[in-house]
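Standup notes
- DV: blocked on the single-chain target, sequence here:
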Amino acid sequence: MIPISQLEQLPLTHRQQIPPEYQDEMGHMNIQFYVYMYGLAAWSLFGLFGITLDHVRERHEGMFALKQFIHYRAEVHIGETVQIRSRVLGVSARRIHYLHFMINESTGKLASTFEVLASYADLDARRTAPFPDDIRATIEEILAQHQRLDWEAPVCGILEA
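- DV (later): unblocked, structure below
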């Protein structure tokens, strides 16, 4: 497993303490809130590329999730604090492959990973579209940084940009 110190090399894309309303009948955080927080982290990651809510409103372009793979590794409980760090794994003309890591700060454990294949989209046509050149260049810069890391990402093996 990847040491938390290595995950700290990645950009922090979300952090929060888990409130009581996130608890399910099993006594830990319900799965819907993992997905919710990963969604918040995605917007933060997209913001690093220049895809913000203003970008979406002004250009009528944004992102579509295509495939996702979630892996639960350790429970998260109410009152604990988690952070999400994100790694870009690949990019093509229209798609990006990335991985979120949810770290439980309270226990020092990796709680979950969320691997995603997403596409840039023309929101008027409701179809995938090529990334604008400036956004693609920024993604490629971040990808190059992440490819220089000296550890392999724990991917599912079926997703790629």
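- Follow-up: The chain has a mean pLDDT of 96.
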